[in-house]
Structures are given as C-alpha cells and as structure tokens.
Amino acid sequence: MIRDTSGQDVQLTPQSPWKNPRLLKRTGLGIGAAAFVVWGLMSWQSTSAVDASVSLARVNIAAVERGDLVRDLVVQGKVVAANSPTLFSPAQGIVKFAVKAGDAVEKGQLLAEVDSPQLQNQLAQESALYSKLAVELARQKIQAKRQRLENTQKADLAKVDLAAAERELKRAELSMEKQIISQLDFEKASDDLARARLEYQQAVQNSQLENEALTFETQTLQLQVDQQQLQVEELQRKVNELQIVSPVNGTIGSLAATQRSAVAANAPLLTVVDLTSFELEAAVPENYADDLGLAMEVVINMGGTQLPGEITAIAPEVIDGQVVARVRFLQQPENLRQNLRMTARVLLESRNDVILVKRGAFLDQTGGRFAWKLNDQQQAVKVPITIGALGLNQVEIVSGLQEGDQIITSSADALENAQIVALRD
C-alpha cells in the first residue's frame, strides 16, 4: 500500500491583517513616515517659492473699493487785506498828517493835507484869466447886438430908398404919358430905381455876412471861456485833493513820509487797510500751477472750522518754485487778523465711480508702478498697476487691481525686491 501526503496537510483558517498587532504596528509606522516625507516636501517647496517674509503688525493693509475720488491740494497761506489802497500826494508841497499809524479811521475822514503854494497860485492865475475871458465874452455879445442893429438899419434904409425910387419911377411914367417930362428925366428915374434895388440887395447880403461873422467870433470866444473853465475846474479838483481823506473804513497801515516834510507830486503818503475784507494769499507749488483756475473751490481750515472760499487771482510768475494765488472767503469770518497763517485745501478735480485705494507709502517705494496683493495662502504677490489721479487720502487705480482686492499700502525693506512675500502673524 502506497502512502500519500494527506496526512501531512493541515487546513488553516485565514485571519484579517488588522487583527495582527505586529502587522498593524508596522503598517502605521510606514504610513506616518510617508506622511512626514510628503509634508516635508510640500513645506520645502512652499518655503522655496517665497522671497521674503514680513510681520502683519509691521504693514498696513487696505481694500480696493469703488467710489468717488476728490483730487485736491493742501497749501499754506496767510491772511491779507483784500483792499489796502495807498494814497499819494496830488502835488508837490509840505505834508501835514492828521493821523498816526494804527489809528482807526472812517470813510471820508481827513487823513492828511498837502500845502502846495505853487498849485494854489496857479489856480488863482487861471481863475483870473477865466474871469477876463468871461468879461470879454460878455462885451463881444453886446458888440454883436449893436452891430446887428446897425446892419439891420442899413438894410431898412436901403429898402426905404428902393420904395422911394419905385414911386418916383411911377410918377415919371405918368408924366411921360402926359409929356410933362423929357425922355432924359424918365431914364434918370429908371436908373435911380435900379441903383436903389441893387443897394438894397447888397445891404441885405452884407447884413447876413456880418451877422455870421459876429456869431463865429462870439462862438470862438465862448470856446475859449469853456476851455479856461475846464482848466480852472481841474486845478480846483487838484487843490481839493490836497486834503486827503480815507476811501474806506479801516486802519492806517503805515506812513510813507514824516510830519511836515516836503513831498513830490505822486509820492506815496500812507496806506489804509480795509479790515472788513480779507483774502488768503496761498503759495502753490509750481507743478500744480497749470491745474489752478479762477473760481476753483477751496476749503480753508481756521482753527478746526472749515470755511468755503474760491480762487480769485493767480500770479503770472513763479517765485522760488511757487505760484501765489488769492483766495476769497465766501463767508467773511470774524476775528481775522492780517498775516494770520492758515491751511487751505484746493479741490482740483472730482472723479465719480472709480476704482480707488487708500494712499500709502507704497506709491513712493515703487513709483506707483507695483503693489503687493494678498492671496488666500497668507502671501502678498507683487503685481504691476497703473495709477490715475492722486487725492489727499486716496489714489485712483486704472489697471492691475479689482474691487475687493487687498494690498499692502505701507512700505517695508522686505518688499523692495520681493515677488512673493509671506505674511507672519
């Protein structure tokens, strides 16, 4: 009998590998080692992609939003009197002041008087000449009336002679018909009538010409009188201006001459400051000069109070890199003093519904060409941007960013040449 291997085989019941403690322990160690390796690789790859890191406490972050941007400019200025006329001497003479510097004056009040004997003497001479011409004009009018009467008389006498000659000719004609007179006497009567008629016509014409000549001479003398009257009135005006009065209510700013001193014609004497009207004289950098315009809106800061104003004048020249602009107060405040320093905000432009972000030092660090935008991995990525108008607190973003993005608005040394920056808590 041949023996087989059935006696050697033993049937074993299969067991689950998770019920084997050794196998389970080895498997767990292997999985943990693999996970550690994967985490290390990911951490190494992430760290190798970051150029620098910066703490969140050291940077400022702002959100990009949509809104209205006001482009403005903050300038410093001083309060000056809008009306401060300087009064001049009307003629050469000796000045006598009735006020002192700093005195309050009213409109029409006597401020100074200039004693000018030369001007007063000239006025007296011209007044005498005016009186003389006025008398000559009156005499001329009387003479013209007399001459007109004589001319009229001559014309009337010639008319009488003409009438007498006409009657004599009629008698001669009747006598000639009755043959009482000779032909010679009749012809003589005819000649006398013709002569009388000619003399009458010449008398009338001479009277008209002489009357026209008299009228012309009278008008010429009248024009001389009128001209002299204007000259006297002008001198009288200058003499009246020797008493210098205040043109406004205000105060005396300064005296340009001393008491009882000799002054020349048109020499400055004093300045009157109108304290009821002030303006702000602001110095604007020359690179903003082209943006300024008349009637441009200005907000003036006076001790925390915002006062409205507008630009009324812009200087045509640049001095020390600045352009001087005059700003008028739309509401004149109280307690203003000359040379008082103030800050003003000039509203250059207003743009509605634009993409904007808070203004920060990143503009100076990159020249407004780049920004560091935050992503969802607690990183800031450097992206190119294009900026538009610059406001006092905000800047317009033309391209490169969208509404809702967050960027770093401050500057840091770690951001200088970094493309990706890790943000630490």
UniProtKB/TrEMBL annotation:
Coiled-coil parts of chain: 132-245
Domain Multidrug resistance protein MdtA-like C-terminal permuted SH3: 354-413
Every CzcB-like barrel-sandwich hybrid domain range: 91-274
Subcellular location: Cell envelope
Keywords: Coiled coil
Chief site of localization: other
Protein name: Efflux RND transporter periplasmic adaptor subunit
